[in-house]
Write a structure and sequence with these properties.
246 residues, transferase, Rossmann fold, 7-stranded mixed β-sheet, alpha/beta, O-methyltransferase activity, S-adenosyl-L-methionine, Cation-dep_OMT, 18% strand
């Protein structure tokens, strides 16, 4: 499916090993009903409605998010960047009985779809959406002394450094919390921006290279920050798993 909706499978196809991802999905535990059907229908409606459906979390990524929630069993989880709610539904489906997810999204239009399918998934009592710029929403949560055991960030790449720094400075990530960050390999271009790594001959747009530089800056920031430790994983477009040190 993802080969058909990615804006340039020529750029991403080999690096992302789309056939291998499909194999991984086929050999992983599927979502239970009604979540499985809701995610399938939501994916189709997102593709039909929005010009950028490729920013949805991939099928393998949603399964990984569900697994992380199952492992961490957060009392409270936070998502920065909901889009149409695919990842929110995946995470909420694995929350413990008393667990809750707050999901932030700046654009109201995709949130309409997200709210619709959270309800179809039977998860309305577990998911709350906050619409508005992420920095203002994070400030509001900090003002309420909120703290989260699991945070998933898949938002505007230029904001990654500021969002992480704010989260750490304001106690939004609990002492034993885990933070997951998506797109840290950004179209396979961060190593080209960094230099010193083997490159391919694929040409990409100036905008992709510009955003890849921002993601590389974030990756560099994460490695240098002595408050945290992190591991970067080559899952789809790259995931970084962050915990506090000590």
């Amino acid at each position: 499916m993802y080969r058909s909706i990615l804006p340039s499978a020529r750029i991403l196809g080999n690096r992302l090993r789309l056939a291998e991802e499909a194999y991984c999905v086929d050999h992983s535990t599927p979502f239970a009903e009604p979540v499985r059907q809701a995610l399938s229908d939501l994916t189709k409606e997102t593709i039909a409605t929005f010009p950028n459906p490729h920013i949805m979390s991939s099928p393998a990524a949603t399964l990984m998010l569900r697994q992380w929630v199952s492992i961490v069993r957060p009392a409270k989880a936070l998502e920065i960047g909901a889009f149409t709610g695919v990842s929110a539904i995946a995470m909420a489906s694995a929350l413990p009985p008393s667990g809750r997810l707050i999901s932030l999204e700046k654009d109201p239009e995709p949130l309409t779809l997200a709210t619709k399918y959270v309800k179809k998934s039977g998860l309305s009592d577990k998911v709350s959406f906050i619409q508005g710029p992420a920095d203002k929403s994070l400030q509001g949560l900090a003002d309420q002394d909120q703290s989260f055991d699991l945070i998933f960030m898949d938002a505007d790449k230029g904001g990654y450094v500021n969002y992480l720094d704010f989260i750490l400075n304001n106690g939004l990530l609990s002492e034993r919390g885990t933070m997951l960050v998506d797109n840290v390999l950004y179209w396979g271009q961060v190593h080209r921006v960094a230099g010193g790594y083997e490159e391919d001959n694929v040409e990409v747009s100036k905008n992709i290279r510009r955003l890849a530089r921002k993601v590389h800056d974030f990756n560099t920031f994460v490695k240098a920050d002595d408050r945290i430790q992190a591991i970067m994983l080559p899952v789809f477009d790259g995931f970084t798993v962050i915990t506090r040190r000590g």
